[in-house]
Every structure is written in C-alpha cells, then in structure tokens.
Amino acid sequence: MSNAIVWFRRDLRLADNPALQAALDAGHVPVPVYIHAPEEEAPWAPGAASRAWLHRSLQALDADLRARGSRLVVRRGDSLAELEKLISETRAEALHWNRLYEPASIARDTRIKQGLKSRGLEVQSHNAALLVEPWTVQTGQGGPYRVFTPFWKNARQVLESVRAAPPPERLPDPPATLAGLDLKDLALSPPAHEPAWDAGFWKHWTPGESGALELLDVFLDGALHGYRRQRDMPGRVGTSRLSPHLHFGEISPRTLVAALQAGDWPAAIRPDLDHYLSELGWREFSHHLIFHFPDTPTDNLNPKFGDFPWADPDPALLQAWQQGRTGVPMVDAGMRELWATGWMHNRVRMVVASFLTKNLRMHWRHGADWFWDTLVDADLANNTQGWQWTAGTGADAAPYFRIFSPVSQTQRFDAEGAYLRRWLPELAKLPDAALAAPWEQPGLMREKAPDYPRQPVVDLRASREAALAAYASVRADGPARR
C-alpha cells in the first residue's frame, strides 16, 4: 500500500479528523507525524502552561494510535525540511493536514503547500477546527463581520447539517524503520530536577481525546441543565470546561454540536442549549476576526484607541495583579485559580481584565501576555478577542467604557463566597457580607484575615472615574461596522 503523511498539529484526536480520514479514504497507510517547531509560530510560540498540556496530549494521542495498531512519529526542526525527510523515508504519495488560522501558521502552511505541490506531491488541507471557516461568512457588502450578533445569525445556519465522523477502529502500522524522538526530548514539561509547577493542573484536567469526551458526557448530564443561569457563577461547576480540549483539537466543535443535537432534550433545556451554542459561536467569531484582522494580537482593532492614554506600567502593580495580591478578592481569587489550575472562569476573566485595563489602566497586551503563558487554553484568537473586548478596543465592544465592578460582580455571582473562600483561604473566616469589599471593615480584617492586604492597590472608585475620563477622550464615529 502507498503511504500518506498525516501532519498533526492542534488536531490531537482520531474522531472527526478530516486529514486522517482523507488519507484512509484514498487507500493510503497514514503515517501520523508531529513536528515540534515553536519558533515557526513566533512571536506567539506556545506558553509554559500550553507546553505542559501539549506533552500530555501527545502522549495520549500516541497511546490512542498504538491501541489501533499505529503510532505517532515525533520530529523536531524546520517543518518543511522534516516533512521532506519523511516523504523521502516513507516514499509518501500524499500529505494531509488540518488547517490553522493564526497569521504565522497560515504563512508557513502556504509556503509548504506551494513548495511540495510544485514537486508533484499531493498536498491537501482540511477544516477540523471550526464550524465555519473565516472566508465563508460575509456581510451583505462582502466583507468580514465586526459585530457578533449578525455574524452568528449568518454562521449558525450550518448547524443543522453538522456531522461528526467516528474514529477509525484500526489503523495500519507505519513503516517499522521510521524513527522518531521520545516526547521527553522536546522538553515540554518541567524537568525532573526542577519544581513541578504544573503538578496542580492534573488534579483538574486529563489532557487527550478520552479526557475531552469524558468531560463532554459530564457536561451533558450536569452543567448543561441550567447552563444559561449558572455559567456566570464561578463557585459552581456551571460550564463545560472544554476550552483547552478544543484548543488542542482533542475534540471538535462538530462533535459538540452533534452531541447536543442528538440529545432528546425537554423544552426547558432549549434556552441552555442555545446559549451554549452561542458560546461556541464566540469562538468562531474570534477566529473570523483574527483571520481578517491579523494584526489584532498586538494592535487595537479600533484605530481610535491608537493614542489612548494608557498608564505607564508599574511593575509592582502588575506583579500584584499577576500573583493575586491586589487586595480585591474577586480579582485575586481569579488570578490564583489561574496559577493553580491553568484556567480561569470566564466571568472572572472579564473581571480581572477590566481591573487591569480600567482600574489600573494598563495596556491590554500586558494581560494578554500573562494569560498566554499561564492558560492551558491559551488560544491566540480567543485571547486576543477577549482582552480587546474587555479593554473596549476591539470588535463588539460597545459600550467600550464598560467597567466591571469586582464588588458588585462578587455580590451578584458569588454572594455566598464559595469561589472566594476556595481560592483565598485567608478570607475563609469572614462573613459573607464582608467578602466582596473586606477593606470596608478593617477591624474584622485584623481579627479574621490578618494575612490578606488591608487595602486594594488602587482606590476602585477613584480609578473608575479616572478611567471614564480617559475613555471620554475617545469619540465614537457612528455605530460599529457590520
């Protein structure tokens, strides 16, 4: 039989994997390959938390392949050079991969496809990551969307036809002589002689396709019921927590949609289901934006913010934010959850981002960079869209002067303090009523929370007024373009 290289990147699964399936359908022996070349993603090479997840995800993929008679061949170096070696070593007749949508990846993949096709090799790329690819959804004027609601109204029309392919039951073995690296050679996880800073992650996560499917089952049986209301409550398991699995392609959005559509749901669940689908829609919208506006990971989408008066970064304040020592409980709880688990509840992400960009008035890139290094679901499209949305500089960001009050957010979404007490044990003895703004009761703080900062690093009211004054200098030029 002929061979075909299947180049795995962020599609680390066997189910609903179009590149793998295309090689099988063509009658080839798939040769599963992963090439480690983080420098080709510069300046957005994966951060530390992502690398730690990637190590375990690749382990899981290799185990799944071996259980079906195949294996993962791991290489490191220039992707084109390594692919050329693999093609020569296997006499492969075809190369298949699933598309990525970040600017650096698009440029790299285009160069590789053109180079190998010119030499007579069959090269095909496929969609494994999105429900709708960025160029397939356009406004009535033929341009990209900049507002979510009309984008999703258009894009969600594909949902009725979504299907997810099952994994192959067996796979032929690649050539036995084909050599690869051991995963430890990639140095993705902390070395054995260093502190295992990621040890706490794995109490919360199981990287790999099996872990993703198990989490999906848990969500369908549990948090989906009441999702619309409970998804904003960080002290409860009210979300799917599938974001890192989606980012690494351990599960496809088509699989999620197919599972939701296959359920025999009572009418009362429909609002929850529709709301979850809209959250998948925001993921689609983020990829739509980064494809059409590739400079947004570093530049404001809204050019009116080019001269915005950001504060000079204060290293001490930035460090207090990073370490969860701002004296503002909702902010500190979120940042400590991030450090301990590699993840943060979405409602809290908005609160901590608002605090950094509005109350501290630091440029959103400082927060985006920190999230990039510490999140296990650090996705360039989602990270960029989330930070620009909260900062008010991006798409769908009206009113751009919105400032999340960490006090009122706590009172609304963690009134009983379950989330704060979990991540801020030094506040555990405070009564519920004192948790949102403990600095207002200094005597109680001295008695029951002596190890927590006595005051926030910045006055919330004064900093809010200063932020509003700064944002008043930005004048809207009519409604956002669709």
Automatic annotation (TrEMBL):
Pfam families attached to this UniProt entry: DNA_photolyase, FAD_binding_7
Identification of the protein by name: Deoxyribodipyrimidine photo-lyase
Cofactors: (6R)-5,10-methylene-5,6,7,8-tetrahydrofolate; FAD
Protein keywords: Chromophore, FAD, Flavoprotein
Organism: Arenimonas soli
UniProt similarity note: Belongs to the DNA photolyase family.
Domain Photolyase/cryptochrome alpha/beta intervals: 2-131
